[in-house]
Amino acid sequence: MVTKNSAMTAKSLLVIAPDYICGLRLSIDSWSNNGSSTLHRSAEVDYRGMRKRLFTPTSQGIRPHDEGWLDLDRAASVEVTSEEKDYGVEGALVSGETQGWRAANTGTQTIRLLFDHPQRLSRISLVFEETETARTQEFVLRWSADRGHSFREIVRQQWNFSPPNTTREIEEYSVQLSDVTVLELVIAPDISGGAARASLKSLRVS
């Protein structure tokens, strides 16, 4: 069963995988693109109440707080490939934050939620904003039931930003996912290969 709500009708390409869609601890990790993870954790540091990790790849409108979203700062830690100063990933994940996340580097970026306990998910909400540069973005949302050893794709979406006319992408998916241990969002900010930096206004799950 697939259910998708999009708040805008700008040109987009959506590929939905079948069947199932319907403070802070900081460390440096590494990962590979073959679907598995090799983690090299540094000492974890308390920071602003949520847990996150920076990790480096090898060569290879926002809802109100009371709508039943999972409290991610208590339920999960997060890994991210990069983040700009003052635009940390917690700004897109924690209820009450409105700053959003912005990558420190150009090119494809990954945000990975690692749940403390397996989760049953029924809704996923994503909000992206671009107010400066016209570009076509692609993101892939996927999940794992085995701590990242294998992944199943939920959705692959392209979206055309064209400021000032089209500046926001809002997506909400109804899903039927059980035993989710990892939720991963991979963002290619400009599929033409431009020097854009990925950003995310909000990611919520329930």
- Multimerization status: single chain
Number of helices: 2
- Mean pLDDT across residues: 82
Give the topology string: H per helix, E per strand: EEEEEHEHEEEEEEE
How would you sum up the global shape? globular
Strand content of the residues, in percent? Answer: over 45%
- CATH architecture field: Sandwich
- Assigned CATH superfamily: Galactose-binding domain-like
Structural class: mainly beta
The description of the largest β-sheet is: 11 strands, mixed
Under the CATH scheme, which class?
A: Mainly Beta
How many angstroms separate the termini?
A: 17 Å
Question: Could you estimate the helical fraction of the residues in percent?
Answer: under 10%
Tally of separate domains: 1
- What is the radius of gyration? 16 Å
The low-pLDDT segments are: 7-11, 23-47, 60-66
CATH topology: Jelly Rolls
What would your notes on this structure say?
This protein has helices at residues 72-75, 90-93, and strands spanning 3-6, 12-16, 28-31, 37-38, 51-57, 76-80, 101-102, 109-129, 135-144, 152-161, 168-188, 199-200, 202-205. The protein is mainly beta and 206 residues long. The chain has a single domain, classed as Sandwich (Jelly Rolls), CATH 2.60.120. Strands 1, 2, 3, 4, 5, 6, 8, 9, 10, 11 and 13 form an 11-stranded mixed sheet that branches. It has a two-stranded antiparallel sheet with strand order 7-12. Residues 7-11, 23-47 and 60-66 have low confidence and may be disordered.
Structure characteristics:
4% helix; 2 helices; mainly beta; single chain; globular; 206 residues; 11-stranded mixed β-sheet; Jelly Rolls
